[in-house]
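Pipeline run #58 for the internal structure catalog. This entry was flagged by the ingest filter as a single-chain record with no existing model, so it goes straight to prediction. Upstream metadata was stripped on purpose; only the residue string is passed forward. Reviewer on rotation: M.T. Logging verbosity set to normal.
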Amino acid sequence: MFVTVAGTYDREYWGLYIKTEQIDKTFQKDRFANTEGTLYKRARFQWFGNQVADYVPVHFEPKTNETGDHSPILELVTALNMAPDATFKTDIESIIDVDSFLSWLAANTLLGNMDNVVNRGGSSGYLYRSPDGGKFSYIVWDMNGAFGAEPEGLTNSQVVNLDIDMPVVNPGSPSPIIGRILAVPEFHAAYLAKLQTLVDGPFLPASMHANVDALRALTRPAALLESRKDYSGAQYDASFDQDVTALPSPPRPANRLVPGLKTFITARHQSVSQQLAN
């Protein structure tokens, strides 16, 4: 990106930036057939009380239809936390698109992104609910922690070998949307099948490494030209094939290593393949 500000900058190069699509009304219209529903930013699924106000807008912030009826949020959280095991499968399938959620969870498990609901306190993500009794859809967001970049207190080895049966930061206290859904045998089997499909196809190291090399070639000249970058050009080059030392950023430990992209991909593919085989 080049910046020009009269009297200050004359087409000065500020670096390589990612163009990120915002989750907003435009996204809503592009992705959903019925665009009159409600979009929520953040999603914490723990039990905070039996009133809508216990959840909206603090834990689920409406970005559209702000003054509308938000009782379906209470219905969703109540089902996740209070529905008896005997009826939970039927209850939750009527409220949220479970299949698409499992697709996201399988991909997230492979990518080792801990900065979302796999960290019980995390709330990165959006929900969209179509009107007229439609189901909630979980929308992924904030993927900069993928490939083990933000381990949320875990070691790199723990992320690489993350348990596929409960792929969360704290298996003893998972977010209800993960813990209860994966406790249903049919959902668990569907999730593992999605993992197997990814491991056998898109996440094969040869394919992933080729994609990494293509992106490296595309971005390298611009990345090295940048004068405002936090990491050196040597660290940028190294980061594709080997771990690099992270910038000091309390409360993260000093000298923490950020996994190299190819290093993580190869090790994670091996770990998940072995777990699936067992």
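catalog note: The CA atoms of residues 129 and 136 lie 4 Å apart.
catalog note: Residues 25-195 form one domain.
status: ready for reviewer M.T.
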